[in-house]
Structure formats: structure tokens, C-alpha cells
Design a protein that fits this description.
By secondary structure, the chain is of the alpha/beta class. The protein is built from 14 helices and 16 strands. It folds into two domains: 4-173, VC0802-like (2-Layer Sandwich); 185-402, 3-Layer(aba) Sandwich (Rossmann fold), CATH 3.40.50.620. The longest helix is centred in the N-terminal third of the chain and has 19 residues, at 22-40. The chain is elongated. The protein starts with a strand and ends with a strand. Bound molecules: adenosine-5'-triphosphate and magnesium ion. The site of adenosine-5'-triphosphate has 20 residues, from helix 6 and strand 11.
Length: 403
């Protein structure tokens, strides 16, 4: 049999629409695939006709093709990833590949159709002729399956390309979006909750490289609460490969707020400190935007007025990709990206330390500023900023503390 191997085909999404920038986008996607492939095995990765091919070059890499497929599904910019059998471009070989591999692939499906594409027009059969032959072969070797051209449960693709033919069925979804690193740099406010990791994912999917900042309030928040946040960052690395988490302590600020300001304003004041610290960090890291997991009306600090009281401090854009989403919709994404189970672990967040019983939902900026002026805001920001620790989190390898 002249089957060479199983290969992974990755299909472009929106990248196809990029005019002048397309080469740059493609280069980033290929680089990211290669970076991941190096960790898995020995693969040849190349591009042709809006598809990227990943070919295993040795036995071990063939064995790890499932892991490599998983990696490909986490690179932004690809909408579909499938494992295909590559073979010689003649119909007899194609039919024997179909007969050998399709019974396994099509097990459990009731209906199918074949779609053929012939980019090599010298191939002696037309696309409908190829589909007819291959469909017939499938009917003869897969028990109980029927053709349904309108609404098939699975599509078998036959592609006659320049050098080889590819046969595949059951394309899986890719990560979508546009390549990581094509939309600038953003600072994600990462808590241990459900929302902020989803917000980070959504911006990363639109090409924004992430830095993270996490505010802790030790000993009111525990070491395990911080570990949970680092674990969430690690899950984001399925997509981003690497991310830095800057951890800043708010303990002193929170104690002073408790002792000096009206309880109703605690959360808003704390959020203004968080914003001041985040802005300072964003400027230091050359981030062009701040990203939060806020969703309008979800809690008292996320009403229009409460958001304004914090938003007005910012001199760079604040992106809130979840602003119009319901909790259920956010949870759906969080399950899909794998952060949900970690997010719901029950550790406290600094926002839940000293929470007011009656938080202001319609605060006036002037009143908030008046409360803020009871303490030396700038000095406290300076002091808190000096507690900053940096932890580098990677998909492959241990976390490292950076000086
Ligand atoms: P999440 O589920 O992301 O924690 P939430 O619904 O609990 O969000 P809040 O606690 O009001 O809402 O926080 C709103 C946003 O503020 C979060 O999505 C996050 O971006 C940021 N944030 C809150 N707490 C922290 C923290 N301890 N460190 C960093 N950012 C935080
Ligand atoms: Mg929270």
C-alpha cells in the first residue's frame, strides 16, 4: 500500500481576508505551530493553498499525532483542523485507503456524503466522478451507512492537490480568531473568578498578547488563592504558550480603607486603587489597553455609574469583552476553554474581603473622590506598587519568578 502517512491539515479562517497583512499573519501562525511542534516531535510544517500541512517525520511523531493535533487546535487563526491520510494521486490507491481507514472513522454515523476537490486539473477524473467512486467504496465497506447529500452527519473529503491526494473525515473546530500577536499588547486584570480568564481568552483570540495583573490581599486571601490564579494563567497558556502574571498586594490599602472610609464605598475605592496600579503597570509594560471581565449589571460595581467612576481614571482604552454577555454564556466559554473547574474552586478574592453590606450602585464621582481624599492615594499606590512580584507561566515547564 502506498499510503505515506497521516498528516494534519489546518484551515485558515479570517486570515484569508487580510490583504496586505496576510503574509505577516501567516508567518505568525506558522511560527506558533513550529514552536509547539518542537515540543512534541519532529514535524515538517508548510503552507499551500490556504491550508497548513503538518507532516510527522518519524515513528514517534506519528504516535504523538493526537497531541500535535491538540496543539494545532489551540493556535488562533485556524478554523478547522483535520487528520488526513495522504496517498498517491490515483483512484485505485485512493479507494484502497478509503476501504482501509473509513470503516473506523465512520463508525457510528448513519449518513455521509463525499466532497471532492481537484486543484490539480490534470487529474483524469472530475470531482463528481471522484465523489461517486469514493461514495460507492464507502457504501460497500461501512455497514448501515447511507448517503445524504443535503444533511449528512459526516462529510468525507477527498482533495487532489499538487503532489498528493488527501482523504479526511470529521474536521474538528480550530481556535478561530486571528493570530496571537497581531493586535498589540494588553494588560488583563486576572482574578480567580469565572469571568476574567474568559475575557483574556477573548482578547487573545483577537490577536492581543496578554500580560496579567493579579491583586492579592494576604493574609485575608490565601496562598492557595494565588495558586489558583496561576493555574488559570497556565490554562490560558494552552492558547498563548506563555504569560506573565504580576502580583500586587492590596493588604495595606484594604486595611486603611476599612478604618478610614465609609463602608458603602469600599469596593469602588478599592477598584480605583486597582485601576491606578494597573495603569501604571500597563504603561511600564507598553500595554495599549486594559482588559477586564466586567459584565454590565452583574454586581454593584458593574453598573454604568460604578464603571464610570473607575473608567474615568484611564488614559488608555479599557476593553470589557464580556460587557453584553449573560453569566450562562460566559460559563459556556469558560467550560470550552477549560478554566471553569478551576475558577469555581472556593478561594476568596480580594474583592470579597471587607465587602460592603450596601455597596453604592449609583455613585457620584465627587462623593467617591471625597472618600478617596481621606487617605493619601498617590503614596499608597506607590507603596503597593513596590510589592509587585512577577511570575512567568508557560505551557511547557515550571513557573518561574522573574526579578
Ligand atoms: P471574575 O469572575 O473575573 O472574578 P467578577 O464577576 O467576580 O469577575 P468583580 O469581582 O467585580 O467581578 O471583578 C470585575 C473584574 O475586575 C474582574 O473580571 C477582573 O478583571 C477584575 N478583578 C477583580 N478582582 C481582581 C483581582 N483580585 N485581581 C485582578 N483583577 C481583578
Ligand atoms: Mg471576582
Amino acid at each position: 500500500m502506498s499510503i505515506r502517512k497521516e498528516v494534519i491539515l489546518c484551515k485558515y479562517g479570517e486570515v484569508i481576508l487580510k490583504g496586505g497583512n496576510r503574509a505577516d499573519f501567516e508567518a505568525k501562525m506558522l511560527k506558533q505551530l513550529r514552536q509547539r511542534a518542537r515540543r512534541i516531535g519532529n514535524y515538517k510544517i508548510y503552507y499551500s493553498q490556504s491550508t497548513v500541512y503538518i507532516e510527522p517525520l518519524d515513528e514517534e511523531s506519528i504516535e504523538r499525532i493526537e497531541d500535535m493535533t491538540w496543539q494545532a487546535k489551540h493556535v488562533f487563526g485556524f478554523v478547522g483542523v483535520s487528520r488526513a491520510f495522504a496517498c498517491e494521486k490515483n483512484i485505485d490507491t485512493i479507494i484502497s485507503v478509503v476501504k482501509e481507514y473509513m470503516p473506523e472513522k465512520l463508525k457510528g454515523y448513519k449518513t455521509f456524503k463525499v466532497e471532492s476537490k481537484r486543484s490539480d486539473k490534470r487529474f483524469p477524473m472530475t470531482s463528481p466522478e471522484i465523489s461517486g467512486e469514493v461514495g460507492g467504496a464507502i457504501l460497500s465497506c461501512v455497514r448501515g451507512i447511507k448517503v445524504d447529500v443535503r444533511n449528512p452527519e459526516i462529510i468525507v473529503h477527498v482533495e487532489i492537490r499538487e503532489n498528493e491526494a488527501f482523504i479526511h473525515a470529521g474536521q474538528e473546530k480550530g481556535a478561530g480568531g486571528i493570530p496571537y500577536g497581531t493586535s498589540g499588547h494588553g494588560l488583563l486584570l486576572l482574578s480567580g473568578g469565572i469571568d476574567s480568564p474568559v475575557a483574556g481568552f477573548m482578547m487573545a483570540k483577537r490577536g492581543v498578547t496578554l500580560e496579567c495583573v493579579h491583586f492579592e490581599s494576604f493574609p485575608y486571601t490565601s496562598e492557595r488563592a494565588k495558586e489558583k490564579v496561576l493555574e488559570l494563567a497556565k490554562i490560558l497558556c494552552d492558547y498563548t504558550m506563555r504569560v506573565r502574571v504580576h502580583v500586587i498586594s492590596l493588604t495595606e490599602i484594604q486595611e486603611l480603607l476599612r478604618d478610614n472610609c465609609d463602608e458603602d464605598y469600599f469596593t469602588l475605592l478599592l477598584r480605583r486603587y486597582m485601576m491606578a496600579l494597573s495603569l501604571r503597570l500597563a504603561h511600564e509594560l507598553h500595554c495599549e489597553a486594559i482588559i477586564t471581565g466586567e459584565s454590565l449589571g452583574q454586581v454593584a460595581s458593574q453598573t454604568m455609574k460604578a464603571i464610570h467612576v473607575v473608567n474615568e481614571m484611564a488614559d488608555i482604552p479599557i476593553y470589557r469583552p464580556l460587557i453584553g454577555m449573560d453569566k450562562g454564556e460566559i460559563i459556556e466559554v469558560s467550560r470550552k476553554i477549560g478554566t471553569f473547574d478551576t475558577s469555581i474552586l472556593p478561594y476568596e478574592d480580594c474583592c470579597t474581603v471587607f465587602t460592603p453590606r450596601h455597596p453604592k450602585t449609583r455613585p457620584e464621582l465627587s462623593e467617591v473622590i471625597e472618600q478617596q481624599n481621606r487617605l493619601n492615594f498617590d503614596e499608597l499606590v506607590d507603596k503597593a506598587y513596590s510589592t509587585k512580584q512577577i511570575i512567568v507561566v508557560k505551557q511547557f515547564g515550571e513557573n518561574k519568578t522573574e526579578e
